[in-house]
Q: What sequence folds into this?
C-alpha cells in the first residue's frame, strides 16, 4: 500500500479487563482525496503483545464493544473498522468511515454493485472499496508493536469481505460466519428443478468478481466456516460447495449450528476458540479432515454411508434428516437427529445406517456432524434424494410430546446473543418442569419448530392447533406462525394469557386467532405455515409448552 496511513488515535476508555480507543487512518486514495477509515481498537488491559483479529461486522453495524470483548477476553487484540460509511439512519456525529465524493457509491445506503455489476466493473463497486478498507486495516495492524499475528473474522456481509481479504499473505487464518458466497444465486434453490438458470453477462462478472466461492481457491490461509442453518441471509445448501473450493485444505473446516436459530450456538462456538488458538497462538490443536456422506435409495429405504478422518479420535457422530418439497427454502426444513453414535462404534472412520422415509413423495435431505476428542466439530455437505413413491404415507399430528428437544431452535436471538450472531448456553432450548412434575419445552429466547413445513406433519385444511401451557408465575404467551408465500415472508401472532399458580392450561387455536403483525389480517390456514414459535411477552416470565398437536 503506497498511501501513507497517517493514523490517529484518541479517546481511550476501559470496560472490564479490556481497553479501547478510537482510531482513524487513510485508505484508498483517489484524485479528490483519500478514504478516511474509522475503527475501534481494543486489547486486554494487561500484557505487551497479542495476536490480533480484524473483525468485520455485518453491513450497517457500528462498532460493538460486547462483541470485541468476546475475543479480548480470550487474549486477542481486536480492530473493528467501519466499511458501511455514512448512513441516513445514523444519529448526528455518529463516527463512520468517510469516503470522498468520487467513492460515495461505497456508502452502504448506495452500495453500488451490491447485487449486480450491471453497467460497471468490479473496480467501481462497493465491494472493491470495502476490500480496500479491510486491506488498509491489515496495514494498520501490521504497524502496531503490540500485535504479533493477524487473523480475520467476518460476520454475514463482513464475512463476504473476509473471503476476499484472505488473499492477503499477512493473514494467518480466517473465519467467515454465515457467509458462503453464491449471492448471484439468491432465490435459486440448489436442489430444485430450475437450479440451473440463465444469467446475464453482468451476473457472470459478479460471480467472478464478487461471489466468495470464486475467491475460495485463492485464499492464502486456513478457513473455518461457521454456518447457522436458520439464517436466511445465505443459502446453507451451498456452504459446502464453497468449502470444497478452499485452496488451503490443511487446517480448514466447516461446521453447522442448528439449535441456535440464526446464531452460532455454544457447541459450535468451541470450534472458534480451538481454531484461532491453533493458527494465531500456535497451540497444538488437531483439526480433522473432511467428513463425507452419500445416500442411495434401495427397496423404499435410504442407505446412508459416512466416512470421516480415520486417524482422529471420534467422540460422537450425529446424522440429521429432513423431508421437504425440493423447492422448499433450506432454512424451513425440519431437521431432526436420526442417529447419535458413540465414536467407539465407528470403525476406521466409517459408519452406515438405513433410514425409512416418513413420506414417499418429497425430497429427503441428510447431513452429518462429527465431534472429536478435543471438542472440535465438523459437518458434511447437505445431500438430497428425490423420493418417488406412489402415495404419501400416514401423516403424524403430534408436533411435540415432551421428549426430544431437537424439535426446537431458539426463536428470537437479538436480546440473548452477542451481536445477533453468537449465542451462549443459557438461551438454548431446555426442559422446564411444570405442574405435576410434567416437563415442557422452554427458552428465554422462545422456542421455534419447523415441523409444520414437513410433509409428515402438514395439517389438514381445517385443522386446529392444540397445546398445553404452564407458567408458575404467570405469563402472556405469544404464539407465532411464520408464513412464506410468493417470496413474501410474514408473521401471524396470537397472545395467550397463562395464569400463575395453576395447572397446565389446555389451549386450542384456529387460524383466525392469528393476526398479521403488520396488516392485522387473519391467518387463512395453518397450511401456509413454515414455522411455529412460542415466546413469553416478558423476558422474566418462564413458561413451558408440551403436547403440541393438530386436531
A:
Amino acid at each position: 500500500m503506497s498511501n501513507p496511513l497517517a493514523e490517529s488515535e484518541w479517546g481511550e476508555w476501559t470496560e472490564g479487563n479490556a481497553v479501547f480507543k478510537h482510531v482513524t487512518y487513510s485508505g484508498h486514495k483517489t484524485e479528490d482525496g483519500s478514504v478516511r477509515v474509522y475503527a475501534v481498537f481494543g486489547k486486554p488491559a494487561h500484557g505487551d503483545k497479542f495476536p490480533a483479529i480484524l473483525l468485520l461486522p455485518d453491513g450497517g453495524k457500528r462498532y460493538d464493544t460486547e462483541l470485541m470483548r468476546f475475543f479480548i477476553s480470550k487474549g486477542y487484540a481486536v480492530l473493528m473498522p467501519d466499511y458501511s460509511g455514512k448512513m441516513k439512519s445514523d444519529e448526528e456525529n455518529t463516527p463512520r468511515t468517510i469516503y470522498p465524493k468520487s467513492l460515495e457509491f461505497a456508502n452502504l445506503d448506495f452500495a453500488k454493485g451490491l447485487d449486480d455489476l450491471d453497467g460497471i466493473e468490479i473496480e467501481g463497486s462497493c465491494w472493491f472499496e470495502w476490500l480496500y478498507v479491510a486491506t488498509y486495516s491489515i496495514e494498520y495492524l501490521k504497524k502496531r508493536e503490540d500485535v504479533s499475528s493477524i487473523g480475520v473474522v467476518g460476520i454475514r456481509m463482513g464475512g463476504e469481505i473476509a473471503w476476499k481479504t484472505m488473499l492477503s499473505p499477512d493473514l494467518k487464518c480466517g473465519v467467515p460466519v454465515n457467509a458462503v458466497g453464491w449471492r448471484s444465486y439468491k432465490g435459486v434453490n440448489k436442489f430444485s428443478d430450475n437450479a440451473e438458470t440463465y444469467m446475464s453477462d453482468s451476473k457472470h462478472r459478479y460471480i467472478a468478481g464478487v461471489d466468495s466461492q470464486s475467491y475460495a481457491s485463492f485464499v492464502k490461509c486456513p478457513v473455518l466456516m461457521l454456518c447457522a442453518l436458520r439464517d436466511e441471509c445465505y443459502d446453507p445448501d451451498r456452504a459446502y460447495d464453497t468449502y470444497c473450493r478452499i485452496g488451503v485444505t490443511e487446517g480448514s473446516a466447516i461446521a453447522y449450528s442448528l439449535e441456535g436459530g440464526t446464531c452460532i450456538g455454544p457447541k459450535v462456538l468451541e470450534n472458534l476458540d480451538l481454531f484461532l488458538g491453533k493458527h494465531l497462538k500456535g497451540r497444538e490443536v488437531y483439526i480433522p479432515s473432511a467428513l463425507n456422506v452419500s445416500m442411495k435409495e434401495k427397496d423404499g429405504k435410504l442407505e446412508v454411508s459416512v466416512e470421516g478422518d480415520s486417524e482422529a479420535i471420534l467422540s460422537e457422530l450425529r446424522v440429521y434428516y429432513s423431508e421437504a418439497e425440493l423447492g422448499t427454502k433450506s432454512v424451513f426444513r425440519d431437521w431432526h437427529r436420526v442417529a447419535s453414535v458413540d465414536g467407539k462404534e465407528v470403525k476406521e472412520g466409517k459408519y452406515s445406517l438405513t433410514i425409512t422415509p416418513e413420506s414417499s413423495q418429497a425430497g429427503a435431505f441428510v447431513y452429518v456432524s462429527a465431534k472429536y476428542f478435543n471438542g472440535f466439530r465438523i459437518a458434511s455437505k447437505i445431500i438430497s434424494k428425490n423420493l418417488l413413491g406412489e402415495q404419501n404415507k400416514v401423516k403424524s399430528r403430534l408436533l411435540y410430546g415432551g421428549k426430544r428437544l431437537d424439535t426446537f431452535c431458539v426463536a428470537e436471538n437479538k436480546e440473548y446473543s452477542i451481536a445477533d450472531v453468537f449465542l451462549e448456553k443459557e438461551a438454548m432450548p431446555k426442559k422446564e418442569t411444570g405442574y405435576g412434575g410434567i416437563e415442557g419445552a422452554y427458552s428465554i429466547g422462545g422456542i421455534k419448530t419447523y415441523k409444520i413445513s414437513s410433509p409428515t406433519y402438514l395439517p389438514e385444511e381445517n385443522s386446529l392447533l392444540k397445546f398445553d401451557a404452564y407458567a408458575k408465575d404467570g405469563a402472556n404467551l405469544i404464539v407465532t406462525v411464520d408464513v412464506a408465500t410468493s417470496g413474501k415472508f410474514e408473521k401471524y401472532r396470537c397472545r395467550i394469557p397463562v395464569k400463575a399458580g395453576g395447572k397446565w392450561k389446555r389451549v386450542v387455536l384456529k387460524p383466525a386467532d392469528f393476526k398479521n403483525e403488520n396488516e392485522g389480517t387473519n391467518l387463512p390456514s395453518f397450511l401456509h405455515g413454515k414455522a411455529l414459535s412460542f415466546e413469553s411477552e416478558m423476558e422474566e416470565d418462564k413458561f413451558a409448552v408440551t403436547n403440541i398437536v393438530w386436531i
Summary: Residues 8-281 form a domain with the Rossmann fold fold (CATH 3.40.50.1820). The CA atoms of residues 159 and 176 lie 4 Å apart.
